[in-house]
Amino acid sequence: MSSLFPALTARSDRPAVRFGDRALTYDGLASAAGALAARIDGAGRVAVWATPTLETAVAVVAALLAGVPAVPLNPRTGERELAHILDDSAPALVLAAPGDALPAGLAGPERLDVDVTAVHRVPLPPEPGPEEPALIVYTSGTTGPPKGTVLPRRAVAASLDALEEAWAWTADDVLVHALPLFHVHGLILGVLGPLRRGGEVRHLGRFTTEGVARELGAGGTMLFGVPTMYHRIAEALADDAGLVAALAGARLLVSGSAALPVHDHERIGAATGRRVIERYGMTETLMNTSIRVDGEPRPGSVGLPLPGVELRLVEEDGSVIEAYDGETVGEIQVRGPNLFTGYLNRPEATAAAFDGDWFRTGDMAVRDPDGYVRIVGRKATDLIKSGGYKIGAGEIENALLDHPGVREAAVTGEPDPDLGERIVAWVVAADPAEPPAGQELVDHVSGQLAPHKRPRVVRFLESLPRNDMGKVMKKALHG
Known about the structure:
Belongs to the ATP-dependent AMP-binding enzyme family. With 479 residues, the protein is of the alpha/beta class.
């Protein structure tokens, strides 16, 4: 396998990473990461206190250079979850920025401060094998303790190279984002992606529409975000000509980690003339599908399988769905070089996650006649079985969000003696003082979708519970 980061070997003065006013060229990054790689060589595993800083980027690159698996830690992780991750992954060291206050739970592993100014002129270490673990990223733990997903170097390279092809991603691209660095989206796509291409990443530290406008307006070509960020952008466009111009000048706007509501797609497109591309991935699979940069824009779709990725839909009994009709719902299964090698210390969970060599994603989708994939929700929380129909929550949520009186919406199912499950809409009103009537929203959905997809209950909330990536935590919604 060739080097994950060919541009590091060249040690050029091209910009590599920037966080606010702190930056490193490829030469500086090779020096700092090379020096740290020499210090952690043979460490087994290292934890990285993954703050949105230059130190986190250097730490992860150093671990990859040294062939030492890195375990990114969410700085907001609770005490119990942190203890589980440390016990499960047993890192020898924790890498952190100088001055970072670490929680008491991190007192076990030896601390090593990351020096981003270190100078290291010896050749970088040889590239480890493609199946060697690169990262161990912990899942969100929604169905039990978080599981450590072991991602091999092969998967990182395969996913980033597939995106290079789908998005025409080059060394001339400058990526702007403010995503957390303890998830696949922000760390692997958002930091390692530009570095593999030999381009530049500018991390905002904290998301603001002003930061997006500033960096895209100063040469940024790509923006990565989650729906919450794009919603804030859509809200700000009417009063911010600079933001409109910055987005209009960008080459690629990408949204991921959850579905971007159609209404926000339309508002951004109307104001800027630019479409937002959606893609679909998971911690265990990295990237599976995407709208191509030269493909048809289709809000609500995550596009086609990426090069090297095979995708199929299956029924609950495991039979493969052959229909490409845009209606038949099935669970997505994938296989390809983008897959993880297993859950750390969890052979039973690893075995249960596969159907032969196909990974069971737990995501439900339909396929349009041309192969485009539309995700309708998670099998565990977004598939509603009502009146003999299998209904995806996502399209109902989009219909609700199309109503001018709705700011946010989530849809769940709850037991019903007649229907099996009834559809429940959870709504945050655009004007909390004058929310739309529940029946008005039911009629609105009925006018856009089939009658059996209308909500039977509408409940209003001040806000929806969300995690760090902006995903609605539906298990926290109950009557």
